[in-house]
TrEMBL record:
This is Curcumin synthase 3. GO terms for biological process: polyketide biosynthetic process. Residues 2-71 form the Chalcone/stilbene synthase N-terminal domain. Pfam families: Chal_sti_synt_N (PF00195). GO terms for molecular function: acyltransferase activity, transferring groups other than amino-acyl groups. Coiled coil: none annotated. It comes from Curcuma amada. InterPro entries: Chalcone/stilbene_synt_N, Polyketide_synthase_type-III, Thiolase-like.
Length: 71
């Protein structure tokens, strides 16, 4: 919520949610739960990767940056 508030734009403008975890595979996934907790629209495209080890954090930051710059 704090980051969205600092961003200063409505939640309806969020198009993607990028989420990764090295543990805890469950369904519905943590990405769905986070989107629900934040009150994001159902139209948000979610990318969730589980069990990809620590290197996935850097890869997900690159993916998030690419999505932010090109959408």
């Amino acid at each position: 919520e704090k980051a969205i508030k600092e961003w200063g734009r409505p939640k309806s403008e969020i198009t993607h949610l990028v989420f990764c975890s090295i543990s805890g595979i469950d369904m519905p996934g943590a990405d769905y739960r986070l989107a629900t907790l934040l009150g994001l629209p159902l139209s948000v495209n979610r990318l969730m990767l589980y069990s990809q080890a620590c290197h996935m954090g850097a890869a997900m930051l690159r993916i998030a940056k690419d999505l932010a710059e090109n959408n």
